[in-house]
Specification:
- The complex is a heterodimer of chains A (372) and B (283).
- Chain A is 40% helix and 10% strand.
- Chain A is α/β, with parallel strands linked by helices.
- The radius of gyration of chain A is 21 Å and the shape is globular.
- Chain B is α/β, with parallel strands linked by helices and 283 residues long.
- Chain B has one domain: TIM Barrel (Alpha-Beta Barrel), CATH 3.20.20.70.
- In chain B, α9 crosses α10.
- The relative contact order of chain B is 0.08.
- The chains are: A alpha/beta (372), B alpha/beta (283).
- Chains A and B meet through α10, α11, α12, α13 and α15 of A and α1, α9, α10 and α11 of B.
- Chain B: Pfam families: HMGL-like (PF00682).
Chain lengths: 372, 283
């Protein structure tokens, strides 16, 4: 039995019906969202950090294959000056050349108003902008403060709103900065809140240099969720220190909050302050309305990932880059979480781009399943 | 780049220790984790190139210097089966035995056990599996028969005062059987524990597990074996190892569960319906 044949028989990769059966057999109360939206950043964040320039036709084919794999959001390119990012020089041709599947969004990065205008002219229906949780990182990268960087985007956000174009906001360095080191959760919350109130429909929280660990992720999210609704949050984990999937898992989980349990007006609930199983069901009939202190901190349900784990790290030579979409989907499918992704087609897209880049995949799943 | 990396490393070390103290949420993790280093055995065993004995010894000595509390040094298996481990006697005799560090060795049968003891072993490991087909294909017998074969080892080890660690393979999936029932893992673990293993290491041998499956499996096993006697051994074949390990570490914090139950019952002025709480609560 070939490797791939084995995988397709495997419990983690079975049909929807079997998957729901196995997730139904999980004995504990569900601690995960039922669905996760995957934002595929391979064509932009991934390729941007690859040494070899990829021909336009290859980029277009890669994106089309990702669309066929059913990824709901695919960040197609970046309307940045070719002087800064040569890999993205063909942004107009790429955006115009890709097939626009119905139901799939193709946001493009716009680092400034000029890029925004060019993106709209080329047919962009959604754009992304970047902020950071670190003053020093912002200073070193674009020579201004965080506040100044956000002011520069104000023009973009106003124009986008007038044109009915949704804007996604990225916050970099949320779990650590190559210059500042430790980043306070309060700062991440402050920047996220600003960008959300300026009009971003979603905030993607990026562990840009991959230094975070699950406890830090949890603390950061706790702070941000006080300012931005969890449904508007995404996590974007880098795998530089091998922590990406563990950090993502932590972000997805519902958590018991810190506050002391108070007893005013408690009600029947299947999620009583983290209690599970027999003890919970024993108490449930006699408990009434939930006080806020009992409510769980709901998990994030949007995750950024890059096919084949593309993209290195500009701050750590030779280190790995983004969380590999294949490895993420493998975990989500195993947890019984719906992604809408066709795993086989996703693997094919990863194989395709790695051959084109003449590099090995960074996805463990792809390594385990693909024969070349 | 080199300077940044150096200062980054310093900041990271500081970051990790400060953050650990400042975690604001209720801790769901154990305060301490014992790491069992299996590189010299499980790791090298699967490497193509034969490593010279002196290199193995140096590797283990460096791991001892790194402070790992348990380092599985080698395997007393026939060189015919595992050429990499042919130098098991020299390795066990050649390594520095740091006080406070254990150096278990794998013993696939009684002959291996005797050789290990003769070479100075103070702790041994034995292997079982949660899959009948896997056991059949590997050593041509059933799980029960394989455990019976170890009975001689366990009895001799007990007589000699040598602790035995038990491994259970394929706990989250089997290359032949596919899905493995948590109940089966619990059954095999319970058997090995009751036969005298002081610890059971639950191995996702082919790395196919995901966190939900890990949690289900552990829930079942924890009904039969005390959690303090359990270890997880995750393979990273599908990139899931750290996530699965994280889930295993989180577990159900049973003590906190009991405390929460007691608190709410006092607040509600009623008795718990939890038999566990009734049995453990002191009034």
């Amino acid at each position: 039995m070939g490797l791939f044949g084995f995988i397709m028989q495997h419990p983690q990769l079975v049909t929807q019906a079997d998957r729901s059966k196995s997730s139904a057999s999980t004995s504990s109360v569900s601690t995960f969202p039922k669905r996760v939206k995957i934002v595929e950043v391979g064509p932009r964040d991934g390729l941007q950090n690859e040494k070899n320039i990829v021909p336009t036709s290859v980029k277009i084919r890669m994106i089309d294959m990702l669309s066929e794999a059913g990824l709901p959001v695919i960040e197609a390119t970046s309307f940045v000056s070719p002087k800064w990012v040569p890999q993205m020089a063909d942004h107009i041709e790429v955006l115009k050349g890709i097939q626009k599947f119905p139901g799939i969004n193709y946001p493009v990065l716009t680092p400034n108003f000029k890029g925004f205008q060019a993106a709209v002219a080329a047919g962009a229906k959604e754009v992304s902008i970047f902020g950071a949780a670190s003053e020093l990182f912002t200073r070193k990268n674009i020579n201004c403060s965080i506040d100044e960087s956000l002011q520069r985007f104000d023009q973009v956000l106003k124009a986008a709103q007038a044109a009915g174009i949704p804007v996604r906001g990225y916050v970099s360095c949320v779990l650590g900065c190559p210059y500042e080191g430790k980043i306070s959760p309060a700062k991440v919350a402050e920047v996220s809140k600003k960008m959300y109130s300026m009009g971003c429909y979603e905030i993607s929280l990026g562990d840009t240099i991959g230094v975070g660990t699950p406890g830090i992720m949890k603390d950061m999210l706790s702070a941000v969720m006080h300012e931005v609704p969890v449904a508007a949050l995404a996590v974007h984990c880098h795998d530089t220190y091998g922590q990406a999937l563990a950090n993502t898992l932590m972000a997805l989980q519902n958590h018991k909050p810190k506050e002391r349990i108070t007893c005013s007006g408690i009600s029947g609930s299947r999620q009583l302050g983290g209690l599970e199983g027999p003890a919970l069901s024993a108490l449930a009939p006699t408990v009434t309305a939930l006080s806020p202190s009992f409510r769980l901190q709901m998990g994030v349900s949007v995750v950024d990932a890059s096919v084949a784990g593309l993209g290195g790290c500009p701050y750590a030579q030779g280190a790995s880059g983004n969380l590999a979409t294949e490895d993420l989907v493998y975990m989500l499918e195993g947890l019984g979480i719906h992604t809408g992704v066709n795993f086989q087609k996703l693997l094919e897209a990863g194989t395709f781009i790695c051959q084109a880049l003449n590099r090995k995949t960074s996805s463990k799943v792809a390594q385990a399943t693909c024969k070349l | 780049m080199a300077t940044m990396r150096g200062s980054l490393r310093q900041r990271l070390v500081g970051l990790a220790s400060v953050r650990a103290a400042s975690t604001s949420s209720v801790s769901t993790f154990p305060k301490r984790v014992k790491i069992v280093e299996v590189g010299p055995r499980d790791g090298l065993q699967n490497e193509k190139n034969i490593v010279p004995t002196s290199v193995k010894i140096r590797m283990i000595d460096m791991l001892s210097e790194a402070g790992l509390p348990v380092i599985e040094a080698t395997s007393f298996v026939s060189p015919k089966w595992v050429p990499q481990m042919a130098d098991h006697i020299e390795v066990l005799k050649g390594i520095q035995k740091f006080p406070g560090i254990n150096y278990p060795v794998l013993t696939p049968n009684f002959k291996g056990f005797q050789a290990a003891v003769a070479a100075g072993a103070k702790e041994v490991s034995i292997f079982g599996a949660a899959s009948e087909l896997f056991t059949r294909k590997n050593i041509n017998c059933s799980i029960d028969e394989s455990l019976q074969r170890f009975d001689q080892v366990l009895k001799a080890a007990q007589a000699a005062g040598i602790p035995v660690r038990g491994y259970v393979s394929c706990v989250l999936g089997c290359p032949y059987e596919g899905k493995i029932s948590p109940a089966k893992v619990a059954e095999v673990s319970k058997k090995m524990y009751s036969m005298g293993c002081y610890e059971i290491s639950l191995g996702d041998t082919i790395g196919v597990g995901t966190p939900g499956i890990m949690k289900d499996m552990l829930s079942a096993v924890m009904h039969e074996v005390p959690v303090a006697a359990l270890a997880v051994h995750c393979h990273d074949t599908y990139g899931q190892a750290l996530a699965n390990t994280l889930m295993a570490l989180q577990g159900v914090n049973f003590q906190k569960l009991l405390e929460a139950g007691t608190f709410i019952c006092q607040a509600l002025n009623r008795k718990t319906s939890s038999k566990v709480a009734q049995a453990t609560c002191k009034l």
